[in-house]
Amino acid sequence: MITMVNQIVDNCPGQDDREQVITTAETHLHKFWARPMKNAIIAHLHEGGEGLSDTAQEVIRRLEARRQKAG
């Protein structure tokens, strides 16, 4: 999953706009990843996020924030 998140981030359109990449990647994970995958990658981030790029870490933080906001 770590590789997958990094690849999603690396292949998002608008690589010159970090905010756009984060938004696009977070939306992708929200829409297309199963709940167990989301839980696992969020847990990995809480354990230090080893192997995740800085941008991928921010994507996961925002994914978690969206989930918390939704209740």
Automatic annotation (TrEMBL):
Domain of life per record: Bacteria
Name used for this protein in its record: Formate dehydrogenase
Lineage, highest ranks first: Bacteria, Pseudomonadati, Pseudomonadota, Gammaproteobacteria, Pseudomonadales
